[in-house]
Amino acid sequence: MAAQSPKELEVAIVGGGVCGLTCAVALQKAGVRVRLFEAAPAFGEIGAGIGIGPNAVRVLKDIGVLDAILQKTGEGDLRARGFVYRPAVGEHRAVYTTPAEDPVDRGIGMHRAVFLDALVGIVDPSISQFNKRCVSVSESPTNPKRVLLSFSDGTTHEADVVLGADGIKSSVRKYVLGGVDDRLAFGNTIAYRALIPYAKLKAAGFKTDLVDAPACFVDKNQHIIVFPIKNDEIINVVAFSARYDIPIGHALKVPDGTPWVQEVARDEVKRKYVGCGPDVSILIDNMPERISKWFIHVVQPPLDSYVQGRVALLGDAAHGMLPHLGAGAGQGIEDAYLLARLLSHPDTNVDNIEDVLQVYSQVRKPRAQMVWDRSYHIGRIYDGQGPHRTDWDHIGEDLDGMFHSVWRHDVNNDFEGAVRALRESGVFPADKSL
C-alpha cells in the first residue's frame, strides 16, 4: 500500500484482534487517523493455531507486515502445503492431497498470539485504548456526520467512521442490523483444541508425516485437523464433532449461561474418537489432561449488508463462519485491506463516506459468503456427509477445486472494481486513475 498524506477523516475501530489490528496498521500506514478500542486489558487472542492462506499472505505483504510476522514465526513457516486426507480408522492411508503449487499457494500456520504480537510491534501504541467494551453505537447528537461510541465504563468517543471488528459476539452488529441482532447461531459444531510438542508425538510412535503436509483425519460426523507451527516444533490439533440432523440456527442451541469456550478433560475427546486408528489414538493420548472445548458459532442467516450509514463490520462480526477451510481469518484480513484502501483513497471524504462503505459491502459480501458456504460444505465432506458419504477413496472428487478459488483470489481486483463502481456512480470524480 502506498503511503498517503494524512487525511482529516477519523476512524474508530472496535476490537483489537487479528482483523482490528490488521486494519489499524493498514490505515496507519496509509496516513489515516485511527483509534482502536479493545475490551480486554491488553491485546491478546484466545485459541491456538491460526492458518493464514495464500490470499491473506499476499495482503499482509502488500500492507508491509509480512516480514515482521515471519520474524516472529520463522521463514520456514511460509510454504505451500496442501492437506493430506486420511481415514481416522485403520492405518490412515492417504486418500487425497490438496494440490498446492509453490510459490503461489504459500500459506502460514502459526499461533494466534504470535501473529498478534507481530502487529502490536508495528501499530502506534498511542492509538489504542484498553478496557473499552463497546455497549452501544449511535448517531452523534451534535453532528449527523459523526458516530458516537459508548463504553461500559461510562465514557464515549466520536468518529467519522466506525469499524466493528469485535468478533462473533459483536456489539456493533446490533447497530448495523437496526437494533436487534438475530443473526448469531450455534454452528452445531464443537471443536477441541490442543497443542502438542512434535517430539512427544514421535516418541509415542506417531508415524504420519506433518512437516511436508498437514493432515486431516476424516470420520463420520467428526474429523481432526493437524498442522505444525513454531518451525514444526509444536503440533496444533483441532478435533471437531458435529451434528447434521438439525439445520444451523434452528432448535439446537447452547444453553443460556454456558461458556462458549471451556476447559474439559481429555477423556471427553477419547470417548468421541473411540475405535480410531493408531495415530489418532496417539494424538488424543498426548493431549494435555485438560483441553479447551469450543462451541462454534456463526453469523446465520447472512447479513443483508455489512454497513449501516457510517458504520461497517469486518471479520467474524460480519460473516463469522465454520473454520473448516481455515479461511475465516483470511476473510477478515481481506475486509481490513479493502476498507483501508478505500478509506485512504484521495477521493474519499466525510461527505461521501456512506457511499464508499456501501460499495465495500457490495464488493465483499459475495466473496465472503462464498467462503462461508464453502466452509460449511467442506466440513460436511470431512464428516462423511458429502456426495460420496464415507467412501473415503473418492473424497478427492468431492474436494477437488474447493481451495483454489479461496487461495488464489486477488483483493486488489476487488479494490479496482470498487473504485470503478464509485466513479461510475459519480461518488468519485470520473476519468481519474485508481
Description:
The protein is an alpha+beta fold. Helix content is 32%, strand content 24%. It is built from 14 helices and 20 strands. It has an eight-stranded mixed sheet. The chain has a six-stranded mixed sheet with strand order 8-2-1-12-20-19. Helix 1 links the parallel strand 1 and strand 2. It starts with 9 loop residues before the first strand and ends in a 10-residue tail after the last helix.
Quickly list its features.
434 residues, 6-stranded mixed sheet, 8-stranded mixed sheet, alpha+beta, 14 helices
**Category by helix and strand content:** alpha+beta
What is the percentage of strand-forming residues? 15-25%
* Spatial strand sequence of the major β-sheet: 6-5-14-15-16-13-18-17
Helical segment tally?
Answer: 14
Tell me the overall shape: globular
Largest sheet: 8 strands, mixed
- Helical residue percent band: 25-40%
Provide the gyration radius in Å: 22 Å
Mean pLDDT metric: 94
Oligomeric nature of the chains: single chain
Please count the beta strands (DSSP E, at least 2 residues each): 20
Distance between the termini: 12 Å
Low-pLDDT ranges:
2-6
Summarize the structure in short.
The chain has 434 residues and is an alpha+beta fold. The chain is 32% helix and 24% strand. The two termini are 12 Å apart.
